[in-house]
């Protein structure tokens, strides 16, 4: 039913909960997980500084995704990790379009501190534009 699941993580607690739920579901449904993190760099330009900053963010992302990979493997869940660069919502929507996923799983909130919002803008945009079901984990 949920053969291919796309899980998006940003290093937040909410995203960790989403991942745990995804791993649980994947174990029971024999699903494969594609785990993605989108590195967002608001600082424009192509200076050496910007380049270094992006590389640093990618390194951190790699370490985070590797931890998730280990967790998935422990639960015998096949997983592929991907790091992308760009606008998170747009990129997640594009990835979801490119491969036909049965489900996208994300957290309600992310790393931003605007706690008064019920749901973050990335989750909101993905829910709005994705053509497959989206599970937003609270
Ligand atoms: N850069 C990202 N890469 C991958 N997934 C992401 C990224 N940013 C957010 N997500 C996913 O979206 C979920 C909700 O985060 P979102 O960014 O929408 O909320 P927020 O950070 O609280 O608010 P906002 O970013 O709108 O200020 C996260 O739990 C995660 O699953
Ligand atoms: Mg965010």
Structure description:
This protein has 138 residues and is an alpha/beta fold. Helix content is 46%, strand content 21%. The protein has a single domain (4-137), classed as HUPs (Rossmann fold), CATH 3.40.50.620. It has helices at 13-29, 48-74, 88-98, 121-129; strands spanning 4-8, 32-39, 79-85, 103-107, 134-137. A five-stranded parallel beta sheet has the order 3-2-1-4-5, sandwiched between helices. Strand 2, helix 2 and strand 3 form a beta-alpha-beta unit. The mean pLDDT is 94. The structure holds adenosine-5'-triphosphate (ATP) and magnesium ion. Adenosine-5'-triphosphate is lined by residues 8-10, 12, 14-15, 18, 36-38, 40, 88, 106-107, 109-112, 114, 120-123. Adenosine-5'-triphosphate binds next to helix 1, strand 2, strand 4 and helix 4.
Tally of contiguous helical segments: 4
Quickly name the level 1 CATH class.
Alpha Beta
Q: Look at the structure and give the mean pLDDT.
A: 94
Sketch the major β-sheet.
5 strands, parallel
CATH superfamily: HUPs
CATH topological fold name? Rossmann fold
Q: Which architecture does the CATH hierarchy give at level 2? A: 3-Layer(aba) Sandwich
Helix content class: 40-55%
- Helix-strand makeup class: alpha/beta
Tell me the overall shape: globular
- CA-CA gap between termini: 22 Å
Q: How many domain units?
A: 1
Strand order of the largest sheet: 3-2-1-4-5
What is the N-to-C succession of helices and strands? EHEHEHEHE
| Strand residue content | 15-25%
**Ligand catalogue:** adenosine-5'-triphosphate, magnesium ion
Could you give the count of β-strands? 5
Radius of gyration: 15 Å
- Poorly predicted parts: none
């Amino acid at each position: 039913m949920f053969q291919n699941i796309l899980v998006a993580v940003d290093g937040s607690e909410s995203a960790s909960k989403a991942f745990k739920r995804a791993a649980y579901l994947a174990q029971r449904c024999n699903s494969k997980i594609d785990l993605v993190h989108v590195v967002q760099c608001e600082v424009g330009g192509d200076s050496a500084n910007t380049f270094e900053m992006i590389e640093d963010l990618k390194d951190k992302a790699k370490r985070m995704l590797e931890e998730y990979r280990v967790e998935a493997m422990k639960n015998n869940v096949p997983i592929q990790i991907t790091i992308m660069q760009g606008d998170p919502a747009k990129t997640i929507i594009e990835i979801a379009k490119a491969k036909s996923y049965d489900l996208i799983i994300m957290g309600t909130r992310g790393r931003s501190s605007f706690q008064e919002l019920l749901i973050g803008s990335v989750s909101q945009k993905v829910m709005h534009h994705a053509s497959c079901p989206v599970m937003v984990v609270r």
